[in-house]
Amino acid sequence: MIKLERVEYKYNEGTPMEAEALHEVSLEIHDGEFIGLIGHTGSGKSTLIQHLNGLMRATGGDIRYNGESIYKEGFSMRDLRSRVGLVFQYPEHQLFEIDVFTDVCFGPKNQGLPREEIEERAREALSLVGIGESYYKKSPFELSGGEKRRVAIAGVLAMKPEVLILDEPTAGLDPKGRDEILGQVARLHKERGMTIILVSHSMEDVAKYVDRIMVMNHGRLVFNDTPRAVFSHYKELEEMGLAAPQVTYIAHALKEAGFPMETDVITVAEAEEAILCTLAMEEER
Amino acid sequence: MMRDITLGQYYPVESPVHKLDPRTKLFGTLALIIALFVADNVFCYGIAAVFLFGIIAVSKVPVRHILKGLKPVIFLLLFSATFNLFLTPGEELIHFWVFTITKEGLIRAGMMAVRLIFLVMGTSLLTFTTTPNQLTDGLERSLRFLKVFRVPVHEIAMMMSIALRFIPILVEETDKIMKAQMARGADFETGGLIKKAKAMIPLLVPLFISAFRRASDLAMAMEARCYHGGEGRTKMKPLKYRTADRFAYVILLVFPVSVAFLRVFL
After folding, report:
1. Nearest to B185 among A95, A96, A107 (CB)
2. CA neighbor of A246 nearest in space, from A225, A282, A270
3. What pLDDT score does B4 carry?
């Protein structure tokens, strides 16, 4: 479990150019949760996730990992980083090894594991993201965009993190690549019980997969609730430069047009059901 | 960490110096350099100080900010001042063990230090008040006469401005890749020289690849806009001298001439 207590982060603290990136963010992330983190560009979401594995140090407040403060003296940041895996935006830009397999081995090798274990983990991670053995000896730079990204995600998965944070894992991918990646992430959550934090711009993606949504705006955590509850604030979300899933808007529009619709629909499947249900009711009358 | 380089970063304020034509400022810096090398007595340095601090005052760049730019040259400064202090023969002032400080040495060390400080301040003032693009524009225009000798002036200027433009991008990229590798357990801080050098591979390989990718993207974008070198190329904002520049040139001429005059007649 990760617990943030009034975490603050200021750039250039103590200079005239001081800027607040996080303002008293308090939240809890429980084991096995699938969380969506959304926010406009510059809202502080990237800053926030870098705090969770100790890449950035809060200028105020405290972060506890399984009850232990990560800023306590003697706390191993390297250990934390192998427990909380962070996949940055465009992770394929971090690939550097001569072949796919060696690159995925980089993380576990840094953990100081024995060789068999390293290779075992790399194989497992690659199969989790659907990269077959025929790819192992290929140069990472020969792969397609989506494949590169999956290899890079495998590079983090190979460290067997307990928590996996993905920063916009679908940015710049075509719909097929996007569905593949999100599908695999959802499987990791379901089959392995991994805690997942998904940073995304796409409300559709978030609504479809996550249990809870956290919304950041101007360095503050403004909403922290189930997708249904958060998207019911679609007007406020719009003011922050965000939006609700398109089907939510359709439901509201139908209701305004006089149909007795449920308006708290957030996925296409739910919307379909709600519309069919309304039509059936109309027919009965 | 790499963002702390003050030397040569544009300081965005509105001031008459910022608005001057880059050529004027380039020649001004040249005039300052010449004057500082011609100067050999206190009066010359006095005029140089008035000139330099006058411009700094008009430029609205805080003196403290300019002094910060001196940090990287402190070592060089101490080094040359110390050598001049102890190794100049002349009238003895203090003597202890093998060290002798002479009056001439003291004066020379002092002048040397002032000369270096003024040089760095003057040149950094140029980059504080002129954007890299203006600077290359000014250089291109001033060195255009070299075309006669078949020097590809425009191409060199274009390469320079692209290189300058890429510095902040690459710094940011380095930061990102470093963090990404640290998230995978990479360690850039501990270990001996060889271990540290090896640890750079996961950073340098992606950085080079991204630099090449960006370069080829840029080349493509330039081609798409029909860039084909400097031949027949016009500018949206051609450099033009204004009244302020003419006025500045008068000062720029009077200043080194008066320094030379003081050196010869005093």
Report:
1. A107
2. A270
3. 47
Q: Give the residue, B80 or A34, on which the prediction is more confident.
A: A34
Strands A163-167 and A195-199: parallel
DSSP code of residue B237: S
Identify the DSSP state of A274: H
DSSP A193: -
Helices B132-142 and B22-38: angle between axes, nearest 10 degrees: 80
Of B176, B185, B187, the CB nearest to A88: B176
* Three-class SS state of B62: coil
Chain B residue nearest residue A79, CA to CA: B185
Interface of A with B (CB under 8 A): 50, 53, 55, 78, 81-82, 85-88, 91, 93-96, 106-107, 110-111, 141, 155-156, 159
CA distance B23 to B179: 41
Asked whether the predicted pLDDT for residue B82 surpasses 90, the reply is no
pLDDT at A125 over 80: yes
- Tell me which chain B residues have a C-beta less than 8 angstroms from the C-beta of A50: 179
Burial class (CB in 10 A: 0-12, 13-18, 19+), B193: exposed
**Closest residue to A88, CB basis, from B180, B201, B209:** B180
Burial of A201 (0-12, 13-18, 19+ CB in 10 A): middle
- pLDDT, one tens digit per residue, over A225-241 is 998 888 888 888 888 88
On whether the CB atoms of residues A94 and A152 are closer than 8 A, the answer is: yes
E strand spans, chain A:
2-11, 19-29, 34-39, 60-65, 68-69, 84-87, 163-167, 195-199, 212-217, 220-225
The answer to whether A125 and A104 are in contact (CB under 8 A) is yes
Contact criterion met (CB below 8 Å) for A47 and A9: yes
Which residues on neighbouring strands pair with residue A223, listed in sequence order?
A215
User: Residue A221 in contact with residue A214, Cβ under 8 Å?
Assistant: yes
- Delimit the domains of chain B by residue range: 1-130+238-266, 150-235
Distance from CA of B178 to the nearest CA of A (A): 9
Helix axes B243-265, B22-38, angle to 10 degrees: 10
Neighbours of B71 (CB within 10 A): 13
DSSP A210-255: -SEEEEEETTEEEEEE-HHHHHTTHHHHHHTT----HHHHHHHHHH
Distance of CA A156 to the CA centre of its chain: 14
How would DSSP label each residue in B158-185? Answer: HHHHHHHHHHHHHHHHHHHHHHHHHHTT
pLDDT of residue A268: 85
